[in-house]
Design a protein that fits this description.
about 525 residues, alpha+beta, five-stranded mixed β-sheet, 11 strands, about 10% strand, globular
């Protein structure tokens, strides 16, 4: 989330009357002020009694390099003409289609509690009122609800959830601004852009390593979304957007207050809150200045959001580039490089978007492999999906694992053959955990023996294997007897998805059947 200064302390409705507290110094040095001093947001009336009460109470450019990289990216779905003027009037015209996009993305309600379904019931009225407020300048964005999600390194990332109506307005603004900026963004920028993804970023990075740029300057911007300077961002926007009401609207969105979990309302001084439809585009507007600078210097780089990799030929060159680019980021962009997560290293030693790149010593090809962090994450997730004390049926557990594996393999399907060993080990680990759950469901050892005999194990072998020593169910799940009774084919028959098999199927070329050829007698014809 953006860096904020504490401004107000309120008590949520239902917990008592809102009582303004005395001014309190926050960690950032700001004071808390009474709620009544804030500008009121546009009130939207809904027919339900609960909502009525709430309303009453709450206020692609061409690359400038010698070699172009073919990325095979899909075309953008944005059909808006590139010459559409960026004005508040254009934003108003796109409110309805913007709401449909917000509805497709689903999402939770914001601080006002109004859901997408409730807004849809009164959509025509909402669009009319919001459009009118946008035109006369009375529209004010509501507060943003902060939620926390876990990060891969054990920390938490703050997300901001605006109200549904505010998300609709943000989406409309994005649809107006995107055709203005998207064609001029650098081709090596892949984050939050139509027709681009992590896969296109990895494809470009692989091409650089294949060309002999086997050292990487791995840059990570520390709390980037929290540190975006509003003044610099608005200045860049004003270079192309000349409609002052639209610029004022964006400025108010950047300054939208944030409601914390304990009811505290804080003011946003800098940063672009993650979670809204507009923030990805604004982040690219900020970082495009970095992209253009790297391109001007002739660097080969790939950037996805706040993760940037610059590919060089030697470690010495990497350290020189790291120092100069770090200086540019911190002095010119007023951002901060996360030194603990940034380094100059071989690509195979770094985690980039879940992957690592490694040159195969035998044939010299470049492999795309799972990073160590990705392997740890999938292992942890499988443990969460297959707990020892699973109380539902084994088939229900398999269905849960399948739902995760299908999406996971779809994302990591761009890996090369070198990843097959990891995927094979993953399949084996999943099957062992399912065997342990099955043994747990059979409960008593006597029952386990009977079930093993029923699955074709000799009686004497079954009794000896289960009762020999004091093995735990986890230890028994990896014994030869249990593996024979519950082989891989057993889990295939029960519908368990194999990550390795699915990966191989994705990599298999699709061969169309040969068309039937008919021989014609030219003499008869």
């Amino acid at each position: 989330m953006a860096r904020q200064k504490s401004e107000e302390r309120t008590v949520a409705k239902g917990r008592g009357n809102a009582v303004p507290t005395r001014p309190v110094e926050s960690g950032a040095g700001a004071k808390a002020f009474p709620v009544k001093e804030e500008a009121k947001q546009l009130r939207l009336m809904f027919e339900t009694a609960e909502e009525s009460a709430r309303a009453d109470a709450d206020g692609e450019a061409a690359r400038s390099r010698e070699r172009a990289v073919s990325l095979a990216a899909p075309k953008s779905n944005n059909k808006q003409p590139a010459n559409t003027p960026a004005t508040i009037g254009e934003v108003t015209k796109r409110l309805t289609e913007a709401f449909e996009q917000v509805a497709r993305n689903q999402g939770a309600p914001g601080p006002d509690g109004v859901t997408i379904t409730e807004v849809r019931k009164h959509l025509s009225e909402v669009v009319a009122r919001v459009g009118s407020a946008l035109q006369d300048g009375s529209y004010r964005p509501g507060e943003i609800r902060r939620v926390w999600i876990p990060k891969g390194d054990g920390g938490q990332r703050g997300l901001g959830i605006p109200n549904v109506v505010d998300r609709m307005v943000q989406q409309a603004v994005r649809r107006v601004l995107e055709p203005l900026y998207e064609p001029t963004f650098h081709a090596s920028s892949h984050g939050f852009r139509p027709g681009r993804s992590c896969h296109t970023a990895i494809a470009e990075a692989k091409a650089y390593v294949d060309d002999g740029y086997e050292w990487v300057v791995d840059l990570d911007l520390e709390k980037f979304f929290d540190r975006v300077n509003h003044q610099r961002l608005m200045s860049r926007l004003a270079q192309r957007v000349h409609d002052k009401p639209l610029l004022a609207l964006i400025g108010r969105m950047l300054k939208a207050k944030v409601t914390l979990e304990d009811g505290v309302v804080v003011r946003t001084e800098e940063g672009v809150p993650q979670g809204g439809p507009l923030s990805p585009l604004l982040s690219n507007v900020v970082l495009d200045e970095l992209d253009q600078e790297l391109s001007r210097r002739g660097h080969r780089f790939v950037r996805y959001a706040d993760d940037a990799n610059i590919y060089v030929r030697s470690e010495r060159a990497g350290r020189r580039v790291m120092a100069s680019v770090k200086s540019f980021i911190e002095q010119r962009l007023r951002l901060k490089v996360n030194e603990s997560k940034s380094a100059v290293a071989r690509p195979e030693e770094r985690h980039f978007l879940g992957f690592r790149l490694r040159r195969e010593p035998m044939d010299g090809s470049v492999e795309v492999l799972l990073s160590k962090r990705s392997q740890e994450r999938v292992g942890t997730r499988i443990v969460e999906l297959t707990p020892r004390n699973w109380g539902n049926s084994v088939d229900a557990c398999i269905a849960q694992v399948n739902a995760y594996l299908v999406g996971w393999v779809q994302f990591f399907g761009v890996c090369t053959e070198g990843a097959e060993r990891v995927l094979g080990n993953l399949d084996a680990h999943i099957r062992r955990r399912l065997r342990a759950i099955q043994l747990k469901h059979w409960k008593r050892r006597r029952t386990i023996v009977k079930q093993l005999i029923g699955l074709g194990i000799k009686q004497k072998t079954a009794w000896r294997s289960i009762y020999e020593g004091r093995k735990s169910l986890w230890a028994l799940s990896h014994t030869n007897v249990v593996n024979r009774a519950l082989p891989n084919s057993h889990w295939d028959a029960r519908g368990l998805v194999s990550a390795l098999s699915r990966f191989r199927a994705m990599r298999q070329p699709i061969i169309a059947p040969a068309q039937l050829t008919l021989r014609w007698d030219t003499a008869r014809s």
